[in-house]
Structure formats: C-alpha cells, structure tokens
Design the sequence.
C-alpha cells in the first residue's frame, strides 16, 4: 500500500523555498513524506473587509473538503493575516484530533513588526508553528514547558522562546498517537 | 494537562462557540458550549464547572440575567462576561452582579489564556488552603489534651471560655505540665486560629538577642545584623504570640514589652518606623511572679497586663487519676513509633507509676514511658523498665578532671529532668543562659531515651 503524505497547500502566493524547507522538519517529526500542492487562490469567501483579515476557520472547512485518500494530514500555508471571530489574530489554527491545519506567515515576518527581513528567523518560526498546528491535528494540546514546541504562542516572543522540539511528555504522546494511527491504517 | 478544569461557554453564535471551545480544548481544558441561558442554568445546576463564559447579548435570557441566576445557584462559580458590544454601563452592571471579569470580543489570544490561568490558580489556592486548615485543625484539636480529673476539666472549661476573647492569658504551672499545649489550644479555639501561632522562649536568650528576636532588627542595627529581620511580634500579626518562661526576662525587656502591650506598636531594633500589630499574648511561667514582684525583679504593671486571665495547670501528683489515661496514651504513641509489640503495663509497674511523685510532671511521664518502651523486652512493661526504679544508684565518672565531673553532673541532672532547662537550671542553681552555654561548651545531647521529649512546659 502506498504510504500516505502530509499535503502542503499554499493559499495565495507563498515562496517555494519556504514550502520546500518546511517539508523536511514535518517529515522528521511525523514520519510522513510531504507533498507540495498547487497554489490556491486567495479565499475571498473568508475575507472580512472590516477586519482586513481572513477567517481561518472558514478556510479550514474548505481544506477538509479537499482531502484525498492518500492524505494523512493537510496543512495550508498562507501569507494572509488570519483571525478567528473571538480573537484579534491567530498565527494558525488546527482541528484538534482531525485532519486540517493552517498557518499564516504574515505575523511571523520581522517586517510586520517594522524590522528588516530575516529569512533565517522566518524559517525557524514557520517550522515551529507548522509542527505545533500539525501536532494539534494528532490530538496534542498545549504544554506548560516553555521550551516545548507545543507551548502556546500568544505573541511572536513566545514563538521565538520555544524550540522546534517536543518535550519528553509531548514526544511520548505523539509517538503513542502515531503508533495508534499506523495500527488503524 | 487541564482536562479536570471544566469550562462552560454560553453564546448564541455557533462560530464563537466553536472557536472558543476549540481554543480552550487546544489548551487542554474540558470545554463545553451551549446556545442559551436556560440550557446553561440546567448545566450549572446539574454539573460541576470551574469557569463560565457568558455572552452579554443573547436572545431570550441575556448575559446579565444568566449571571444573576448563576450567582443564586452557585455563588462561588467565576463568571466571565464576553461581548462585542462593550459599554461602560454594561461593564459596571456585570461587575456589580458579581462577574469575575468582562472581556471585549475579539480578544487578544493572550487575554483569554491569562484570565483562565488566573481563575484556575486562585481555585487551586483556595482548595490548598481548605486542606491546610483541615490539617491544622486536626493537629491542634483541643480534644488531644488528656485529662479527666476535675482539676483538668476546670482548666478545659476556662480555656474554652477565654479562647474567643482577645484577653491576655498567663498560664502558670510547674515544668512539664503542658503549658504550651494549653497555649496552642487557646489559639486553636480562638477566631485567630487561621493566623500564626508564634512562640518565643524568653528564658533561652540573653537580653540583646531576645529584644531582636521579639521586635526584629534593621540591617546594620548591630554587628552581624546583615539583613533586616522581622521579630516574633510582626510574625504573629493577626495571631497569637506565646511568651514562654516570661519570668526570666530582664527589666529592660519588661519595659519594652509593657510599651508594646500598651501602644500595640513598636520599632525594630535600630529602626525608625513605628510598626503596628494585632497580637494576642499568651504567656507562661513556672515561677511565682507575685514573689518576683515583691523582690522587685518583675514589674507589677506588666504582670497585670499579662495576667488578665490566669490559668493554673496542676502538677501531675495533684491529679493522679489522669496518670493511667496519660500512660496509656503515651504507650500507644511510642508503640506505634517504635513498632514494638508491647501490649500493656504490668500491674506492678503501674502501681509504681501511680505512687511516684513525678517532679517533671507529664513530660517526665512521657519520657519514662518512652524509655520503658525502648528498653522493654517483654510483652508488658515491668518495673525494671522504668527509669526511676533504679534511682539512688547513679553512675559515677571515674575521672578526677573538674571539667569531666562538671560535664557528667550537668548531663545527669538534665537527663533526670527530661532535659527541662528551667528545672535543671534551678537544681544546679545557675541561670538558664549559663546552662545553655555549658550544654554548648560540652556538646551535650539528649540520650536516645530522652530524644523525643517535647518542650511543652
């Protein structure tokens, strides 16, 4: 049987280099190969003109409708600024214990904070947020350990403080979930 | 991580319910969302929740009404009002109705996390506080003091009567009669019981040190005062200060103490700031303070300040009917501690115990039973196991050295008195500070049989 993949879907214009670099840590953490799909158009249905932001929950629903038989998980990657109705913004959103997640690069860029671009830092932040949201889809919740990638990011500072690794406990939980998934498959 | 923390969300908008629920679940909380007030009230009534998020504007029952009804059912449940239409009036009304917080939609992701963490932390502290109070009450239960004799029943009655007042109490009685236990019982039965009970052993310290112990000192107040230190009066604020061996304090400290009792405020040693405290004073002595007043070594005005209520603890020889009860209590205690299979005290040994004069009172009895349990080899305690059985044949040191003789003599008297410092100092006809210095000089330590004796006299 063909092994399932994590599907990366660029939503709106996203640099190829970032998408390719992102596939390496996703493969390392979750053990599934990544497939970079064709770019989706910016989702006007999710746009809120008052907030000038895109509703991530609406996009997640669209991603769920796209799912293919050989997709283990889908992660949308976008440069658009995302929100959910109750929050002023989100770095990303995931369906806890389900299939889809999305991350926004908008607030991960130094330029957003009026600073000169820093590609290395951007890649490191993208990697952490993608692993974090995908791990939510495998059922992992937030962790108190500030160094763990599952620590919640409320500000960009939180993202920079945490590492791209799981703490012992979260690693154990993820291994358990992934093993469960293999048996199920 | 937080699944035992249950959060109920009440909002008519599906998208808010889903988003908030999903977010809280990502944080590991057990979140449940409902659409309207009626359903929320049913859930609040039927289940346990830690936090309630309620939308302000809902069709039918609005958020403020839900808040009021919840406060009637579960007044302690924290309710957080969320709204997209914030007005000062609604915020004021919500807080007046008992809302824990008022948050405006959309929130910063951090705001919601912080408010939940704050509530959970507060609830954990409350739970911990209740547990600690229960443990404290258990530890100082008044019923733990043993005595069925008429004399002790009178003491218990007096303790109950004076506990609730703030009157100063002077406890008198020979060493080893349990003065500190009574002081603790007064504290434990008073409205101050959840505040500190602080003890100060006045006889154990020389004048300067006692002053600094009682009132604290500022940094640099004297050589070696490297840090500012709070005194016992400050530590006991809101609670009870137990001044043990009050008869031993110097005239200078007597004046200082009188001033604090009069003014309810003091300055730390070397300090300028006047510190006010609310402290109840319970003091104890084995001395006859009235005689000390006559001899001019204890201030009469201080005596009347301390002695608003006096409680006299009878010596054990005056309440012999309590001896079997106490002996049984200590036997059970030390049997459990040492894991020995000693079942009872032989009739002959009990007869000896009943006949003995117990100059060291309950403490001596406790030490005697402990020793007997430790050295006893049979299923019952026999006369040979009792320390006073062999009295009159003291071990002698063969050394001719004055130092060795002194060391041996002090040790022996300490052991005989169950390491009661006051009694030993009295027997040796030296003051307590000198005795402490000698103990330190000769590096004297309690023997095994005396090692667990309580300093409760």
Sequence:
């Amino acid at each position: 049987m063909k092994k399932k993949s994590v599907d990366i879907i660029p939503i709106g214009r996203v640099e190829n280099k970032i998408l390719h670099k992102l596939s390496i840590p996703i493969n390392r953490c979750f053990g599934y190969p990544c497939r970079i799909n064709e770019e989706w158009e910016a989702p006007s249905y999710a746009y809120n003109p008052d907030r000038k932001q895109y509703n991530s929950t609406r996009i997640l629903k669209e991603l769920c409708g796209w799912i293919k038989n050989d997709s283990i998980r889908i992660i949308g990657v976008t440069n658009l600024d995302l929100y959910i109705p109750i929050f002023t913004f989100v770095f990303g959103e995931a369906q806890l214990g389900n299939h889809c997640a999305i991350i926004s690069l908008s607030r991960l860029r130094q330029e957003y904070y009026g600073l000169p671009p820093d590609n290395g830092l951007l890649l490191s932040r993208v990697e952490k947020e993608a692993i974090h949201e995908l791990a939510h889809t495998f059922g992992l919740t937030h962790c108190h350990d500030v160094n763990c990638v599952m620590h919640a990011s409320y500000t960009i500072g939180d993202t920079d403080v945490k590492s791209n690794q799981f703490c012992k406990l979260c690693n154990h939980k993820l291994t358990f979930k992934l093993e469960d998934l293999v048996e199920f498959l | 991580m937080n699944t035992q923390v249950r959060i109920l969300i009440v909002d008519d908008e599906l998208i808010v319910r889903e988003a908030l629920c999903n977010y809280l679940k990502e944080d590991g909380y057990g979140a449940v969302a409902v659409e309207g007030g009626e359903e929320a009230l049913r859930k609040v009534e039927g289940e346990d929740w830690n936090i309630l998020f309620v939308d302000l504007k809902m069709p039918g029952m609005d958020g403020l009404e839900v808040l009021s009804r919840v406060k009637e059912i579960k007044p302690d449940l924290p309710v957080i009002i969320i709204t997209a239409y914030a007005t000062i009036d609604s915020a004021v009304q919500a807080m007046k109705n008992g809302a824990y917080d008022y948050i405006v939609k959309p929130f910063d992701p951090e705001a919601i996390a912080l408010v939940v963490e704050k509530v959970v932390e507060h609830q954990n502290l409350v739970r911990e506080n209740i547990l600690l109070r229960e443990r404290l009450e258990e530890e100082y239960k008044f019923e733990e003091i043993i005595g069925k004799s008429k004399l002790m029943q009178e003491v218990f009655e007096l303790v109950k009567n004076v506990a609730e007042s703030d009157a100063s109490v002077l406890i008198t009685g020979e060493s080893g009669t349990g003065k500190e236990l009574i002081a603790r019982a007064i504290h434990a039965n008073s409205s101050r019981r959840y505040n500190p009970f602080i003890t100060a052993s006045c006889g154990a310290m020389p004048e300067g040190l006692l002053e600094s112990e009682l009132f604290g000192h500022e940094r640099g107040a004297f050589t070696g005062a490297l840090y500012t230190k709070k005194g016992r009066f400050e530590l006991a604020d809101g609670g009870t200060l137990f001044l043990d061996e009050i008869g031993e304090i110097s005239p200078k400290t007597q004046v200082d103490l009188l001033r604090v009792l009069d003014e309810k405020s003091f300055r730390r040693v070397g300090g300028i700031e006047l510190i006010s405290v609310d402290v109840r004073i319970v003091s104890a002595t084995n001395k006859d303070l009235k005689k000390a007043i006559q001899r001019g070594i204890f201030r009469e005005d201080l005596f009347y300040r301390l002695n608003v209520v006096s409680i006299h603890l009878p010596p054990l020889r005056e309440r012999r009917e309590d001896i079997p009860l106490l002996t049984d209590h200590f036997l059970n205690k030390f049997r459990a501690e040492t894991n020995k299979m000693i079942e009872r005290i032989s009739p002959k040994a009990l007869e000896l115990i009943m006949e003995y004069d117990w100059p060291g009172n309950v403490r001596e009895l406790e030490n005697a039973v402990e020793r007997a349990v430790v050295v006893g080899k049979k299923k019952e305690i026999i006369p040979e196991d009792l320390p006073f059985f062999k009295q009159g044949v003291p071990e002698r040191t063969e050394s001719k050295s004055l130092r060795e003789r002194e060391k041996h003599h002090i040790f022996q008297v300490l052991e005989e008195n169950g390491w009661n410092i006051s009694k030993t100092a009295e027997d040796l006809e030296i003051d307590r500070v000198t005795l402490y210095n000698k103990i330190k000089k000769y590096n004297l330590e309690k023997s095994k049989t005396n090692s667990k004796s309580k300093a409760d006299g």
Notes: The first helix of chain B runs from residue 14 to 26. The radius of gyration of chain B is 31 Å.
